[in-house]
């Protein structure tokens, strides 16, 4: 992209800078151009720090950077997620809190500890950090902010290492992340990239719509507005349509936006065939497979679509796809499946008890997530469930017969002699299929469907191959699955590169695809509903804008017949 007048101003600006703009407006591109200019002023040991929220966003920026800056310049730009960077800071300097080497609790482990703690968990996390040097993963930014506010010397050291810091998706920074930026801004130049209309995470504690105003006041930055530009889909009208959906205004629907309505319950089969046909047509026309995102507002519908894509139907083959999942509860469900992979060499009582414990832990994690992210909505049912299961486990240990239906169902599943053959993918599906017969087992199974095991080359499937004993069981499957998923939970793993991706619309933020398909179910994943209040409608319209604007060439909306129109 040849820089125009406003971009030349951005590249040549000195001091803190705020770059505002919508999807595809070129915020990241011009920030990389500015970074290349800033590198000329750095000392040999200094780098530019580029912070974002997801591995996928980092991956896409890094991919784009290869064609924009030289290999020597790329070595001077350190691209990190907030979580991974804060993790490094805590592991290096967390001992300043307690004089002990810092240790970090992974999110799934924190969920278990939190659910069993009767007191003030917030106070307990502070005690763990101050007295034991143990830090909760989701609070790493808080402790980094505390370190920086207490130690001017530490701030000087990091500002010396990173004289320039680029903050992507700035509008969604939490209060603690903003505290970090403010501390470093005293000696480092901060470049903020923001889109006010993509503010999605207001439900998270510490995230506010006022962040951009706070930055204007505190940083007094050079302020540039690129909101009228669109380089992602300039000729398609997609961004104009997305903005019309956001505002509920009238627009002539462009040719690049296709609405498909359906009746009946077999529409997932048709979506499967449609995606295969679309992919083949695009490949014949362009000589390559398109990047396709299939989006929904709920993980449950995403999981159902993934299950459909995994099978071969009469009209289409299975679709290799990347499944982007919500971390903690999905991982906890995976641990339950792993316990079943270990059944063949266990006694009936040990096998059922281990699976029950994992299911109890699943509901502990679900309880913790509800308390920390949803204001406690749904937490009471989860807590009641894991307490019932815990009492059952204690009762079984004392020799009493099982009382709960879930225990009897698991025992019957064990008695049916599950057989594995060493094909880790098929064996995983076989183990997962045993999770049925009660509401609790069905819920765990549905969550486990969000874990990707399509081929033996997938990381989880490949790792399980190492556990196969050559005869009948997967020795150490629980530990192996835990190791693989904990790596992904802490956001330090590489991203997959499948051309077809399935995810919730929230997860699509920061990504881009040639084609975006948005699916609405008659009952799950509604896009709009007449019964919703104005707050929820505005939130969903904002979410829809994000999903639609991920597309570079085409948007396909698959909705039930008689759905509420998105525009006038």
Quaternary state of this entry equals: single chain
For the sheet with most strands, the description reads: 6 strands, parallel
Bin the strand percentage.
5-15%
- The coarse overall form would be globular
Structural class: alpha/beta
Count of DSSP-assigned helices: 24
Unreliable stretches covering 5 or more consecutive residues: 491-495
Mean pLDDT: 90
Q: Could you tell me the number of beta strands?
A: 14
- Global Rg: 25 Å
Q: Residue share in helices?
A: 40-55%
Ends apart, CA distance between termini: 35 Å
How are the strands of the biggest sheet laid out side by side?
Answer: 3-2-6-7-1-8
Task: Describe, in plain words, how this protein is organized in 3D.
It is a single chain. With 568 residues, this protein is α/β, with parallel strands linked by helices. It is 50% helix and 12% strand. The protein is built from 24 helices and 14 strands. The protein has helices at 5-12, 27-39, 55-65, 71-74, 82-93, 95-98, 107-116, 121-132, 140-150, 152-161, 175-185, 211-219, 238-247, 267-286, 299-310, 327-341, 348-373, 379-397, 405-415, 424-433, 439-448, 459-465, 477-489, 534-548; strands at residues 17-20, 48-52, 77-81, 103-105, 134-136, 164-167, 189-194, 222-225, 257-262, 292-296, 322-323, 500-504, 513-519, 551-560. The strands form 3 sheets. It has a 6-stranded parallel beta sheet, with helices on both faces. The protein has a 6-stranded parallel beta sheet with strand order 9-14-13-10-12-11, covered by helices on one side. Strands 4-5 form a two-stranded parallel ribbon. β13 (513-519), α24 and β14 form a beta-alpha-beta unit. α16 crosses α20 (424-433), α16 crosses α21 and α17 packs antiparallel against α18. The longest helix has 26 residues, at 348-373. It is globular. The two termini are 35 Å apart. Mean pLDDT is 90; it is low at 491-495.
